[in-house]
Amino acid sequence: MEISSTITCVWKKVGRSSTDVPTKYTLYVKELGRNHSKETNGNSSQVNLEIFPHHMPMEIWVEAHNKLGRIESGHLSKDADSFVKTNPPSDIKVISEKTFPTSLLINWTHPIAEEYLKLTYQIRFCQNGSQSWTYVPLVDTDKYIQSFRLQNLRPDTVYVIQVCCKNARRGHGYWSNWSTNATMRTPEGIPKGKPDLWRIITKVDGVNERQVRFITKDPVFANGRIQRFHIKIQDKKDKVKSRSEEWERIPVNRSEADGSSSQREITFLKQIDLADERSVRVYVTAFNSVGESAQASLFIPDKAYGVWDLAPVEGLNLSSHGGQLWLEWKAPKNKAVSEYVVEWAANGWTDWQRENRTTTHTVIKGNLEKFVCYTVSVHPVYSGWTGKPASVQAFVEEGAPLEGPEIVDRKLGRNDVELVWKEIPQDKRRGFITKYTIFYKNGSKTHSVTVPANTTSYTLTSLSGNTRYDAWISASTIGGSARSLNHSFWTLKYAAGEIEGIVVGVSLGFLFIVLMTMLLCIYKKDVIKENFWPQIPNPGESTIGTWSPHHPVKADTPKENCLSGISVLDVDVCDGKCVFEEDKASLPLKKDKYLSEEHSSGIGGSSCMSSPRQSVSDSDEGGDMADTTASTVQYSSVMASNGYKGQTPSSQPQQAIFSRSESTQPLLDSEENPDMLLQEGSKHSQRFPRQPCFTHTAQNKDSTDPADCHQREMEQQELLEPLDFYPLEEDSEQTTPTEGQSADWLPAAPASSYMPQRGGYRPQ
């Protein structure tokens, strides 16, 4: 291949150009006394020399000119070969030799024959995906060569290689462009280093044991695709069993593409349940197609050993910058830390990296995702003992939640309601919840309440009873907010316990009234008995049914409640007038009382009352008799024709008077049939009972001999025996004969035997 006769020149413009004053550039090339030029408006141009002048001097310059003047650049005067820039090498080939896992052999083709130009080469390479190139020193390639061996490479690593060239004469020519990429993987080698062994310990609830998961990463220099791991777990207390433990093979199923990734793969090895009082040591080695790596170990002590009390790091702080998480902490005081393990976990996935013991800040080197919450922990390691971690949560970038909180429960009241909601799942939060806002409305007006982010329940107050409300909750992060679905509810018509209170109150009130009524009845039973069950004389005990001339009335024996303490005055019938005149001054005031009281208990019956009756002498006190007999009800009054009226007996027989009461007691047969009574009265003569013999009391100092009294009674009975019993007129009144009246006064005609009683019930 020959050198082209076309010269290309590039320059840098100076000054300003406008449409009114345009600037033009002229390229000049001078060789062998010939001048070549070409005018252009740009900053580059080409000149064809027809034949390239090898090994001859050449001068090149550029002139700028416009209406205002012209200016000339500096002149380049060199050998013509000094202006040559060759094409890059072609046909780049990279050869991987299995016996040399750390080297690659490169071959290429010269872009121009040595007769025209002798060249020198430059080589650079990098791992696939990296932009950091490594240059081979020029002293190793400053030769006219067509191959080169790259050494000290990493086994089982893909490399990208490029080559360029220039004139071998020092100070002459320009470097060509880089050749196209040539890519090749180095052969596998024996793993260097040891696996990165780690553990995840979880406390098992209800039992005294721990769940330990062992995980590992490939060695830093795996030098090939790891095909399997060998693991051995030794019990530190059981020495015999520890010796008999064998290695367990853990195969790794991994594709070729996984091995090409710069991210180290994590392999799950084994999970065991470890009692709190047990301690074990774990050993792991890695194998590829060439050989076995060094052995890694990890000690898991028992909980009583006190390792968990080893001091953690202090002041752990985490921040997000440029899509990465930066950590900073302070080393534990008075503790010799051998290294730090930075662990981050999210959604059941865990990764970690190790940092030097002198490091107090780092950046997480893993591939972190946006809107994912990571729990970052820093574990200090003390000569193989892992101390207590310090943890913090962080997001690489925050956004609005994917959904709002869900209302799961409510506790209704009359004027309040408690809303309980469920937190948004961690994978849908997309950031840290800063607050919750509760919205509720019962019409067109909407109310809102803001609560802290650590709250999952809130009670809305000042609500209206028996009213429908719509409520929803909004969760907010730095990146935005999301609301829940509408939740409808009705407040209660009555508050909790209000109905029970009303029922209890009414029941207690009713019980109180019943008790008070019972107590009142107990204490006022006599008054109630008198008002609702008055004592009415029993007509069955009356002697009116047997009062006839053939059935003389026997004197009743005084009962317990009968009138007592009466002093009887013995008065002769013939001497009645003088007695009347003698006591005229006092008897008229009492005669009505005698008539009403002595004959009020019944026809021909005794005067038995519920309360004792006073004597004639005791009745002078006026109204006392009415008070003591107020509880008895008058049934009827019977007044015989020869009864005592004003204590003056008449010489003529008088007609008996029946005074009918207003009682509701049933009438006797004789009362219901007065005609029968009249017939019997006409046939038979009435025999009156023996009149009592009155004896003067202390106020009336006369006395009568009992024998004389008996004689007078017999005589009086003989005088009265032929008399018939005639009733008075119903509307006539029983009167006392006056001094002007004749003793033989009789009513003109018989009348009804019933006489209405004045004033209803009269006290006995």
Automatic annotation (TrEMBL):
Biased segments, Polar residues type: 641-667
UniProt key word Repeat: yes
Compartments, record wording: Membrane
Principal location class: membrane
Superkingdom of origin: Eukaryota
Pfam family, one: fn3
Membrane topology, as annotated: Single-pass type I membrane protein
The keyword Disulfide bond appears for this protein: yes
Record's compositionally biased regions (Basic and acidic residues): 702-715
Region spans: Disordered: 598-627, 641-764
A cellular-component GO term for this protein: plasma membrane
Full protein name: Fibronectin type-III domain-containing protein
Lineage start: Eukaryota, Metazoa, Chordata, Craniata, Vertebrata
Encoding gene per record: il6st
